[in-house]
Amino acid sequence: MFPLSGTFSDLIDEVTLYLQGHSVNEDQFTSLAEDFSTSALSFRVTSADAVSRGLCEIGDELVIVSSVNDDTATCEPWGRGHRGSTAVDHVAGERVNYKPVWPRSIVGRAINDIISGVYPKLFGIGSVDITPQSISQQYELPSTAERVLAVETKWSGITDWQKIHSWEMTFGHTGTGVNVTLPAIGPTGSLRLWYAHRPNRLATPEQLFTECGLPESTRDVIVLGACAKLVPWLDIGRLPVQSAESDLAAQSRAQGTALAGARDIRSLYMARLLEEQQALEAKYPPRTHRIR
C-alpha cells in the first residue's frame, strides 16, 4: 500500500507497479557492490549474471553498458545519464535493473506532464498570511498566484476566521507583479489569502507529492493519467522490424491491445479528474471579482 502523501519516488514506484501488472513482468535486477561516482564509467554488481551489454538503470539514472567482465560493468564514454536522465553519485546497495521496460526517469517525466496538464481543471492551492496595513489596502501576492480563492480575517482576541467577500486582483510591474486590493478592514489581528497556482513539477525523489500543490486526494488521478499516457507506447515495440526473432515474438502480442487498455485507463482518469474538479469547485466556488 502506497502512502497517500508519499514522495515522488513512491509515486514512480506506484505507476511502475501498475504498468508491470503487479510484478507479472518484473525486470531483471541486481545491486551495486560498491559506490559509483558521477565521473566513473565502471561499476561493480553483486550478481554478474543479471547484467549484460545494453541499457541499465541505477536508481533513476539510465546508463549504456558496453562490456561486462566478471562482476564489473563498463559504460560507454557517452553512456552516463542516458535518455534524458541525470548522472548522479550512487551508493553501494542501490538497485540495478537490466533493460528496464519502464525506466524511472521516463515514468517520472510522464507523471510531471500529467501534473502540469491537469491545470486549469485542477490547480495548486497556496496561502499567505499578511499583517494588515493601517493606510494601504493593497497587498502583494506570490508571483505564482493565478487567482484569489478566498480571503479571511481574524480579529485580535477571536479564534475563528471570518471570510471577506470582496476584493480586486491586479497584475502589474511592481514587486511580484500580483496584488490584491481589499476593502477597509479596520483593526484586526491578521489576514490570510488563499490563491490558486499552476501545479509545480516534482524535481527530486524525496519531494512529497503535496509539494506540487495539488490536494492529496488527487494522487490517484495523477497515477491513472501517467499510466494512460505511457501504456500506448507498448504497441510501438510490436511494430514489424527487420528481424525474424523480433517478428515472431511480436506475433504473440497483437498490436492494438495496449491502445485498447489505455482507453479504459483514460476513461477512469477522466472520471476521477471530473470528480476532483467538482470537489475543488465546491470548496472554492467561482466568484465574480474585479481583475485587471
Describe the structure.
By secondary structure, the protein is an alpha+beta fold. The chain has three domains: 1-25 and 104-119 and 204-292, no CATH class; 26-100, Elongation Factor Tu (Ef-tu), domain 3 (Beta Barrel), CATH 2.40.30; 124-197. The chain has five helices and 14 strands. The chain has helices at residues 8-19, 104-117, 219-230, 244-251, 257-283, and strands at residues 28-31, 42-44, 54-58, 61-69, 72-75, 95-98, 124-130, 138-140, 145-154, 162-164, 168-171, 178-181, 190-197, 290-291. α2 crosses α3. The longest helix is centred in the C-terminal third of the chain and has 27 residues, at 257-283. It is elongated, with a radius of gyration of 25 Å.
Features:
alpha+beta; four-stranded antiparallel beta sheet; 292 residues; 3 domains
